[in-house]
Amino acid sequence: SDTKPQNFLQQILSQDLADKKHTKIVTRFPPEPNGYLHIGHAKSICLNFGLAQEFGGECNLRFDDTNPGKEDQEYVDAIAEDVRWLGFTWAGDIKYASSYFERFYEWAIHLIKAGDAYVCHLSPDEARAYRGSLKEPGKDSPHRNRSVEENLLEFEKMRAGEYDEGACVLRAKIDMASPNINMRDPILYRIRKLAHHQTGDKWCIYPTYDFAHGQEDAIEGITHSICTLEFADHRPLYEWFIEHLPVPSKPRQYEFARLELNYTVTSKRKLKQLVDDNYVDGWNDPRMPTISGMRRRGYPASAVRKFCELIGVTKAASTVDVGMLEFAVRDELNESAPRAMCVLNPLKVVISNFDGGTQMMTQPVHPNNADMGERQLPFTKELFIERDDFTEDTSLSRKKFKRLVLGEWVRLRGAYIIKADEAVKDAAGNIIEIKASLVPNTVGANPPEGINPRGVIHWVSATDNVNCEVRLYDRLFNDAAPDAGDKNFLDAINPDALIVISNAKAEASLANAEPGVAYQFEREGYFCLDSKYSSKEKPVFNRTIGLKDNWAN
Ligand code: ATP
Ligand code: MG
Ligand code: MG
């Protein structure tokens, strides 16, 4: 990649290797297992694993599990599956911050012995008042100058469970007047009398993110600890711990701008609310911007990776148009998706001059890729076409309506040209059937003089097809900035983001459709089998994305 322009992280890594500051790059992706991963995390995954790949290094998957209250094994499993699905392999075994708890504890004692930490009994409200503000320096806690012996004893009591939650904390002794509030004697340990998904009841004190993160990096030999911009103010603290502890390596923290997408919410807390309050059908609802939602909806992992590459990595926050993600999906699927036909809203067509039986029509699986093979479409006397593809209105121009008009011709994709002879109606005047005739010898051949089909439409046999449910998805929010300012994102939920069509008719070959494979339903969009609700009797197809961007203006 000598010719490609490098982002600021690639430049740093190249320089560090050139300077022999490191012989091998080690990065990590450090999710907290308190929810499912979303598209923002995908950016971090692609970045951390991508840099490791590009520079011949390694990337760890490490669970930052220092907060047992909100964490769960379900999330651990889902996150690992999502990273794997995105196409990345972590170095060695999965890592857990919790497996370093004993070492963190020893390091806390190291700080106490050095006079750099103390047990503080201020209540949370008092501690807040003592902390000061951006304009005002903080005040020293009355417990700040306890003896080392007293601190060791108090900390031991904290560990032994002798104090209630909130009764006291262990704090670093740094600088209550620092302009950086993170440096005003930050909390290292708090009491949480909760079982932990990895360590069970072993601990009732848990390290804070700040006291854990850099030390996890140091233990694992992480060379470049890449995080989002909101942690820039924590970097001095990250470095303070690395300086004051006997850590085995000295990682450095770098920050990049988090991904913000319009029409999308990327906060685990808000996504969890959508799930918990049943606005969506679980974390992997195809409308969700979660990795598992995108997977269930049919987004290819390669398209998500491509999108992350397209948006690049910067230090300046900005909002990306979700249309770019959709573009990446459409672009990828146009290349790779097998073609098929499915009639969403069926209208019966009876071909008067076709004598029963079945004529197999051969179509390529992909129009531009012969390697993908061919498929067989049973053509029968009774067919279905899309209700919207027929009109009795003969005044519509050929340009406006390139489909079937009463008394005129249209080509059935991969089959005959037909003419609509009569629209049969029920007592209420609704069209219930079209009587049509085919033009002989027009399969794969031009029609005779004087017959001008208006266009090409899709169809399926009415007697040999797959009855299926089709779910049409759209953006989950109809506001470009659903959670901006003091807006309530729940008010912006798009009520039309899911439309269920229960009696669609798909071509017979789709009886063998497989989950995880997206098909282009010709003229309708890209669809894939739903992994949750499909059955052999009734397949359910999710619309991954339409053929065109209907939101562009
Ligand atoms: P959320 O705010 O959604 O809860 P988080 O940052 O708390 O996200 P973590 O599990 O801590 O969630 O995230 C793991 C990694 O993913 C972190 O390194 C974090 O910086 C990164 N990350 C999270 N959200 C984004 C985003 N929108 N864009 C880029 N990286 C992100
Ligand atoms: Mg986090
Ligand atoms: Mg969070």
UniProtKB/TrEMBL annotation:
The entry's ATP-binding residues are 32-34, 38-44, 228, 258-259
- Whether Protein biosynthesis counts among this entry's keywords is yes
Q: Which UniProt keywords apply?
A: Aminoacyl-tRNA synthetase, ATP-binding, Cytoplasm, Ligase, Nucleotide-binding, Protein biosynthesis
What positions carry the motif 'HIGH' region? 31-41
Name-wise, this protein is Glutamine--tRNA ligase
KW rRNA processing (keyword) present: no
Its domain of life? Answer: Bacteria
Q: Where in the cell is it found?
A: Cytoplasm
Catalysed reaction per UniProt? Answer: tRNA(Gln) + L-glutamine + ATP = L-glutaminyl-tRNA(Gln) + AMP + diphosphate
Query: What coarse category fits the chief subcellular location reported for this protein?
Result: cytoplasm
Provide the top EC class.
ligase
> EC no.?
6.1.1.18
HAMAP family registered for this protein in UniProt: Gln_tRNA_synth
In terms of InterPro entries, this protein maps to: aa-tRNA-synth_I_CS, Gln-tRNA-synth, Gln/Glu-tRNA_Ligase, Gln_tRNA_ligase_bac, Glu/Gln-tRNA-synth, Glu/Gln-tRNA-synth_Ib_cat-dom, Glu/Gln-tRNA-synth_Ib_codon-bd, Rbsml_bL25/Gln-tRNA_synth_N
List residues of the Glutamyl/glutaminyl-tRNA synthetase class Ib anti-codon binding domain. 337-438
Q: Which residues form the Glutamyl/glutaminyl-tRNA synthetase class Ib catalytic domain?
A: 24-334
Query: Subunit composition?
Result: Monomer.
| GO MF annotation list | ligase activity
Domain named tRNA synthetases class I (E and Q) anti-codon binding is located at 456-530
Q: Which PANTHER family match?
A: GLUTAMATE--TRNA LIGASE (PTHR43097:SF5), GLUTAMINE-TRNA LIGASE (PTHR43097)
Motif 'KMSKS' region per record, residues: 265-269
| Protein family membership | Belongs to the class-I aminoacyl-tRNA synthetase family.
Which parts of the sequence bind L-glutamine? 64, 209
